[in-house]
Amino acid sequence: MEIIFVPIDYKRVRIKNFKSLENVEIGLEKLNVIVGPNGSGKTNLFEAFLFAKSTVRPSIYPPYPFLYWWGYKNMVYMHDISRNVEFGVSGEVKTREGVLQSFSYSLAVNGAGEKLRIIEERLDGGSFRITRMGSELKVYLHEREVSSYEILDLRYSVFNLFAYPAKVFDEERGKWRLVLQANVGLLNGPPQVLVELDEQSIDALVELYWRLFSDVYLLKFSSDRARTPSVPGSIIGIDGYGLFSVLQEMYSGVGPEKKPEGFLDYFLDRFNIRLRFQNTEFQTVLMKLVEDGLEVEPQGIPDGYLKAMAVLYLLDLKPSLLLVDELENHMHLKLIEHVISAFRASETKVLATTHSPLVIDLAKPEELILLYKRGRSTEARRTENPEALKAELAERGITLSESWLYGSLSDEI
């Protein structure tokens, strides 16, 4: 398999006032299995990333990231619209030459009156920083202010306020420059930001500006939506709609020598599955499955196969971070094992929520994040000593899931 280039390593996330997540901060490992009883906030953690991505990289204009929750009141902690919802991430961005640059990004929004207002925002890429407070935006280089702007529409993030950055070489000075073109319809100020930086820092900032949250994929799978015929050219949605279209684009008409190689292809080979596509009279795509020579209509395709194909298709897109809500739903243990093995073999970080003891027992103690409620607020913890926990479980002859179910894991962390 080809070497996978994953430019952003999301290391920590902090969420404030999103649903039950009044103030939660967690570190992200390679595989993160989110466990907790019903109502503990597992799906809220998943949806917080959906909110952040919808704000930073909106799919509708003007941006309105509250639509999924039917309004800001239903999204903010305790329905208190006087509170701001905050989301922040930090980590490292990697250039194609392998250079690492630390970064952090945070935003605070309010939606009282059902109108999005980004109250604060900060993008920090080392020596280069963009900050906003209210309608005022400033750009800094080495802690020195180099540009300032008035924001004309508070609904837009810095990723919309400036065009994507460019790297240019100044022949006269023999220096590299980072160029950001201001969106004149959204900003009042200089037409562009032009700063001198070393080439490696510029490369890292360009990767960050292109990819932050664009390379975060989410799946809250619905088998009914996934098996619905979709329009050619559709992208896969958070619920799996569009699966048939993206798989047709990937597989239809390719010969063995052009067959895609990846986690999905390995899954199809292992389970002896072939895909067959048909364009309907309604200009949509439906997919049939051929297993051991038997053709299966869309409504007969097992839900677990559809979900595994959706997860592995997304994994083959090589995102920096993949989130899957309720990983175990629809899938038998054999499929769960296959998918988790793919997670481990990939370069993608994965965050998966679960209720299932099967998933917990396939995880390592250090990969678990346990959520629980303290009053109305969700709190998150990892085990402080995973090696000691492993030894204790082995000595007592119980599984990780049994430890969680009977409370000793909860007590330990």
Number of domains: 2
Strand content: 25-35%
The number of helical elements comes to 12
Largest sheet: 9 strands, antiparallel
Question: Portion of residues in helices?
Answer: 25-40%
- Overall outline: globular
How many E strands?
21
Mean pLDDT: 90
Q: Nearest-angstrom radius of gyration?
A: 23 Å
Q: What is the terminal separation in angstroms?
A: 38 Å
Class per helix and strand makeup: alpha+beta
Q: Spans of 5+ residues with little confidence (pLDDT < 50)?
A: none
Comma- or semicolon-separated keywords:
single chain, 413 residues, alpha+beta, 6-stranded mixed beta sheet
Structural write-up:
The chain has 413 residues and is an alpha+beta fold. It folds into 2 domains: 8-215, no CATH class; 227-318, no CATH class. The mean pLDDT is 90. It starts with 7 loop residues before the first strand and ends with a helix. Helix content is 26%, strand content 32%. The strands form 4 sheets. A 9-stranded antiparallel β-sheet has the order 2-1-4-5-6-7-8-9-12.
Give the helix/strand layout:
Blueprint: E1 8-18, E2 21-27, E3 31-35, H1 42-56, E4 85-94, E5 100-110, E6 117-124, E7 128-133, E8 136-141, E9 144-151, H2 158-161, E10 166-170, E11 175-181, E12 187-188, E13 192-196, H3 199-211, E14 216-219, H4 223-226, H5 243-251, H6 263-270, E15 273-279, E16 285-291, E17 294-296, H7 303-316, E18 321-324, H8 333-345, E19 349-353, H9 357-362, E20 368-374, E21 377-381, H10 386-396, H11 400-405, H12 408-412
Parallel strand pairs: 3-19, 3-20, 14-18, 18-19
Antiparallel strand pairs: 1-2, 1-4, 4-5, 5-6, 6-7, 7-8, 8-9, 9-12, 10-11, 11-13, 15-16, 16-17, 20-21
Helix pairs in contact: 7-8
